[in-house]
Structures are given as C-alpha cells and as structure tokens.
Amino acid sequence: MPRDGAPATDPQSDPANPPEPYPSRADAAASFAAHVNRGKVRALEAIGVDVVMGDRQGARFRDAYDGRSYWNCHCNGGVFNLGHRNPAVVEAVRRGLDRVDVGNHHLISGHRAHLAEQLSASTDDLLPFAVFTPSGTESVDLALRLARAHTGRTGIVAATGAYHGLSGFALAASDPRWFDPFGPVPEGFAHVPYNDAEAIGNAIGPRTAAVILESIPATLGFPAPAPGYLEAVAAAARDAGALLILDEVQTGLGRTGTRWYYEQQGVEPDMLITGKGLGGGVYPISAVLLRPELEDFFDANPFAYVSTFGGAEIGCIAASSVLEQIAEPGFLGRVEELGLRFERGFEGMPFTLRRYGLTMGLAFDEEGGGVMAAKKLIDAGVFAVYAEHDHSVTQFKPPLIVTEAEVDEIVAAVGDALG
Ligand SMILES: Cc1ncc(COP(=O)(O)O)c(C=O)c1O
Predict the structure, then answer these.
(1) pLDDT tens digits, residue range 133-161?
(2) Domain termination site, one of 326, 348, 379
C-alpha cells in the first residue's frame, strides 16, 4: 500500500495480487466486445470513459492499466457504502470461508436467522421477517407478488422515472422506458409522476394491492420528497386497504444519516427492500423485510419463494458485519457530519446540492449538465455518474467511511473539475 493510502500503483507488477486476465486495456475491451457486450464498449468509448477497475480499497480504486486513482463517489449506488473491501467485512468473510459456503437454501440456517434478527432490530421490530434474495430486482419482484397474494388484488401503483430492476414485476414497476422494448407487462401496473400526491391518490383504488416507491428516486437525481408527500401516499394506501412498499436499495443502510430513510419521513412501510450495500460489496445479497401479517402467506406456502443463492450463508456473514458497523455508536451521526462537510465545501460551486446524509445529487441548470459534469469529474479522478432519468443531475454518493481529510480532497477535486 503506497503512503497516500490509495491502492497499489501497479497491480500487474504486484505478485501478491492476481494479475488482470488481459495484458492491455485494448485487449480487455476487445474481448469484452467479442464476448460480453459490444454496445456497452461502444457507448463508453463514445463518452471517452475507458476505466477498467483495478485495485481498490476504502474510498478509492485504481485503473487496472494506467494506475490512475479515482475517488468512488458513485459506489454502484451504495454497494460500496462501507468502502471497497471493508476490512471488517473481508475479515468476517475470510473467517467464514474457513467453515461455510453458500449453505442449503431449504434448511434452517442460523446465519440467515441472525441476519434477519439484525434487520428486524434495525427497524425497531416494525418489520421482523426477512426473505433473502440474490438481488434488489428479485426482492422487488417478490414483494409485489406477495402484495398481490396478501390482498387478493392485482393493482400496483409505481412512479414514472422509477428504477426497481429489470426483470419480472420489478421491470413492470420501473419507468416504462425500461419495459417498452419487450411488449406488454403484466396487467395492473400504473405509473404516476413522483411527488404528485393528487395523481397517486387518484391512482390508488379498491383494486390496488400495493404502492411501490423509492424513498428518494435515485435515477431521477434524488429529488426530495415534497413535505408530507410520503405521508399522504401512506395514508391513501392505508385508506384503500393497499400496502406501502418502500424500495430503500439506494437510501437504506445508513446512507441518509438514519438506518432507513423512512424514519425521517414519519411513515411506516409494510414491506421494505434492501440490497446493494447489504453484502458489503463482496457478496450479492438482498432482502424484503416484512410486517408480521405478510409472513402469514408463507405459513400456507412455505416454499412459495425459494432461490438457490437467496440468503447464501457467506453473504449473510458479510451482511451481518455491515449491520454491526452501521449500528456502532456514532456511525450515523458521522454520516451527517461528513455530509455537512461536503455541503460547506460545495458552497459557491455551479450546482444546487440535494443532500440527505451522504446521498447527494448535484443539480445543474441546463439539461445535460449532469452528464457533462460526470465526465469532467471522472477525468479529474472523481468517479460519479449522471442520473439516468434526469440528465441535469449527477449522482454523488461517496462511501460512508471517508475521512474528513478525504472529504476535503474530494471537494478540492470537484472544485478543480467543475469550478
Ligand atoms: C432503487 C433500486 N431498486 C432496485 C434495484 C435493483 O437492484 P439489483 O440491481 O440488485 O437487482 C436498483 C439497482 O440499481 C435500485 O437502484
């Protein structure tokens, strides 16, 4: 590890690190185009982004070929909430691998039970049951199916501009641009603009099984829920006998300065989706957290949801370490303090800051401003990504474990890039 704390400069020459499979960036890109996705290679080339992720640690990663260091201020939407290769998570998984593997998804598992207990505690036992899946998409899909089974209704109300994943019911709940190429989605899905209480109130009716919303829609560039909006949605759903599902894949696990963002909004979901950072960036694991009455369905149908890798034991070990770290005294307060430090540092910069803890959107006046800013930031060594459904915004999500000095360095780099 070099003295500046960034990962090793030249992973190819470090015998302790497995080398990249290809000798050059061009070879890696050519093979990727030939065997994985040539459209992606072309699209990235078109915007001049040819980064290949190499060594990574904490808030930074290096390009695998030129050794260039990047602050990770996207974190895959929260996968790297606790930084790359978080030492406690890595240690827990290393020790876990001496004894377990994915386990058997049909059997009782103490690791799965322990993680569900921790998740329950994180909601103050509002949502005491957890169903584990390998991805956010599958969790959303399951939550929507469960809502239909529980209510005996088929209607699902979601937001335009939402992103809940790209298959099954999750795809049908996402913005129509994602499912349009594939023909009709299952019946019963309606989309209304986010933050329009009247529109969603009108869409919710006696046939509505559930309303699903991201607490703060990520791909819309993290617009703040209007005061009282989520409360109004919760009340409209409750009055109609429908369930409220909050997708906290991007906003949960301490990202906004509380364990879950709903805690700041005076609403209590019937189901909550978590994923991404749950696996500490090292093992894919996601969960649907349920109120007790929703678990009733599984009394009669205990095998209604099975997934070979859902709740894999080694993933549970990673996730338990993540939850332990978030529950440490002072952790959440520090997230808000670091957010404030960014806020002060960004004063006078040419964007409006949307900020909730360390979940941030840099909103520019001009359409496309977020796309241009993301490119400039990447060129300046700050990895950030524009909001897919609002190109005037750059999503800005540094890891929750950045140090104060790192915040200052990132702010300086952003100032150089955008100032
Ligand atoms: C808010 C939200 N929900 C659901 C998903 C889907 O999660 P996954 O990619 O793990 O399937 C994502 C992924 O980006 C997301 O951002």
Answers:
(1) 999 999 999 999 999 999 999 999 999 99
(2) 326
